[in-house]
Amino acid sequence: MGVTQAQGVQWARNSIGKSYDFDGAFGIQCFDLINQYGHDLFGVSFRGAVAKDLMQTGNVGGFRVIPNTASFYPLPGDIFVYNNGSAGHTGIVLGSVTTTGFIGVDQNGRSNNEPSTQRAFSYANFAGVVRPPFTVEIPFPSRPCKVKVGNIVRLTSGAKVTSPWSSNEKIPSNVVNKYYRVERIEKLNAKWESSEYQVLINSDESSYRKWIYEQDLLVAPAAKFKKGMKVRLSTGATNASRYWSRRILEKKFLGQEYTIGDVVATAESQSPYQYLISSNTLGNLWVLEQDLADRTIRFITNEPFMNQEHNQNAEVKNKNLYKTVINDISKESTAKLMVEFTRSKTWPMLTNGNVFLIEYPTHLMVKVVGVKLDSTASVKAECLRLTKGQIPSYNERDMKVVLQTNKKYNWIEIDNLPKDWQAISNRLRHNLRERFCQYFLDTRVSYGQQSDGKFYFQIINLENEKRATELAAMLKGWFPGDTNEYTNAQIFLQN
């Protein structure tokens, strides 16, 4: 073990009042104190006839001569050297170093054979120092603990044994990758791998309470959800949090949307937080983070004319919407065929608002809107068939029916689609729109009877004149009035 700076200073303090005659010649000299210092602590002695010779002979045994400069200041434990007179003077720095001087110890300083004495020294005639080869003390612990009392932490999968205060026993595999609360922190006697502390953790869920090496703990991330956010209670949730005595969750509450009323840290299983959720049917309930999914919409399919109501409503009378009409169709069967053909050709343009893709932070959802109440069961069954065609493992419990606010239609949520399946989800959206195009467009693309007994064909609720003109041109190509008994497609404002 080397000698530390603190040990050097302590030796100098202990020398006060003592007299040293290291070489046994000329009585008590200042140089004798320095040789005794070097001998006792480092096993070296210095050559030289007088004190100021140390600036030439001091580089021995790891000691290092440092000449004085305008910006230099000595350190405690340094051997100071003065070059005044024919012999100079020397001693040991104790401390209190300032711009004007320092406190040190010397002997034979003010009178012959004076024992070691503490006194103040200035920088007049100060030649420099001989610095001892002190061992740098690395403090232990060298830093604060990585976790704090009260933190919620995760016991990592790499944790193998507990710390000494829990007898270095093996850590069972069924307690790792779960969250715990930090109860107490103590420093280790010596560093163990990268750990300088041992941490007492406990669980809000089980009786597991052990001292763990700090390297095996990770502070829980910030809460995923905040007060006021909309969330969905997972269909796989089984129990409420400990605030509700692990109450079993009824199936009717699963898969529903709720609003977060409060957030509290916890140390339960996979969850570092518990959340108070509420609804009119559920009331208030504390549940775990692992059982919630974010319902904040981050992205909706970005296509023009997403207004789903244009496909659901009868002709809307205002000056902002257009329609295109073909009149004087002689047979109803002809009008019906024209409608079915047009729906099959125009659905990519006209059903954007009926099936669209929503992206949540953790998953995707395809939403089918504008489903008539009496058709919901059959549409849902077909949605499930098409979904399983793309995703065979899809869980039927993640598909649900929600009544729209106008209470005339339902929507169907095809939820919990993996986020890395966006291509599949878009393909599913395409297939659903194509499959239900006749159904979705039964109001928007339709026919009726004129007062003279003939029939008309129309596409209504078009968002602007450009879209109406585009569709009219398509209709003229399919159903040219110039060579038939009916008119060419005409454009009108729905006023």
Automatic annotation (TrEMBL):
SUPFAM superfamilies: Cysteine proteinases
Peptidase C51 domain sequence ranges: 5-131
PROSITE patterns: CHAP
Name by which UniProt lists this protein: Peptidase C51 domain-containing protein
